[in-house]
Amino acid sequence: MQQLLQQMESIVIGQQRNLRLLLTAFLSGGHVLLEGVPGIGKTKIVRTLAELTDGEFRRVQFTPDMMPSDITGNVIFNNKENAFQMVKGPVFTNLLLADEINRTPPKTQASLLEAMEEGQVTVQGETYRLPDPFFVVATQNPVEYEGTYPLPEAQLDRFLFKLTVAYPSPEAELDILKGHVPSYASTQQNHAGAAFSLDRLKELRSSLQDVVIEDALIAYIATLIRSTREDKRLLLGASPRAGIALMMASRAWALLDGRSFVTPDDIKTVAVPALRHRLLLTPQVELEGETSDHFIQETLATVPVPR
């Protein structure tokens, strides 16, 4: 995983933290939502991961006229065989890039709910298992942009992380520009190395159960989650699924760091991307300029850390 991370960092410039969080979700079995303005490399991040792993990759470009069957597939009548036949959609893959997911209406967005939560889809009463592993990375433009359909809370809760892809630093942007000049690009290429095996990923996922998280840290996570439900500034707090996500993400972060135990810093590191999309602020608080990120940071500062 460390080698995979280094290879990705050599290709995607200026997104080190987001890349590590992406691999943390990849390791823990969660899904990721990437949000950012157009043209900052959201799609490239996912394509790079696909190129460096040996699994099957599909990309779906979401549009306003897309139907749920365009994602899951449909049952058609085969005249040659004189029988009904299931034509599987692009969701039957290991890594699915749901590009600009908020460009499609809620009915089509909801077609991914069962797939992301249970690893299966149901078409005309028949249930079909998806490949293992199954990893969804969705990209979206900020909700303020024209022609977008904000994802409902039930859909957002299926994502382990929401990662905000910001503009690169001046130094990183200079490296990006140089990468498109042939004389510089030839010296920057560093794609060597065997593709990461998804069989190895399954082994690492099973070893997550051996990462120790003490009872005091589990209680710490529970207190953080309950604090979000008790605050009057929130219309919607974090669900028990959010607590499970926070615990799994902290264990994967520790394992990616080469440790077999979780520390409070691991929980604090993954708390913002794991919770920011699960909280709904009241309109009055939003008008005052508060964000869910600020609220999570404030909660982390007020809840006592176990010693």
Structure description:
- There is one protein chain.
- With 307 residues, the protein is of the alpha/beta class.
- The chain has helices at residues 2-11, 16-28, 42-51, 69-72, 106-109, 113-118, 153-156, 170-178, 182-188, 198-207, 215-230, 240-256, 264-275, 283-287, 292-302, and strands at residues 32-35, 57-61, 73-78, 83-88, 95-99, 120-123, 126-129, 135-140, 161-164, 234-236, 280-281.
- The chain has a five-stranded parallel sheet with strand order 2-5-8-1-9. The protein has a two-stranded antiparallel sheet with strand order 3-4.
- Helix 2 crosses helix 12, helix 11 crosses helix 12 and helix 12 (240-256) crosses helix 13 (264-275).
- The longest helix is centred in the C-terminal third of the chain and has 17 residues, at 240-256.
- The protein is globular and about 70 Å long.
- The model has no long low-confidence stretch (mean pLDDT 88).
Globular, elongated, flat, extended or rod-shaped: what is the shape?
globular
Strand content: 15-25%
The arrangement of helices and strands along the chain is: HHEHEHEEEHHEEEHEHHHHEHHEHH
The helix fraction, in percent, is 40-55%
Largest sheet: 5 strands, parallel
Keywords:
307 residues, 11 strands, alpha/beta, 15 helices, two-stranded antiparallel sheet, 5-stranded parallel sheet
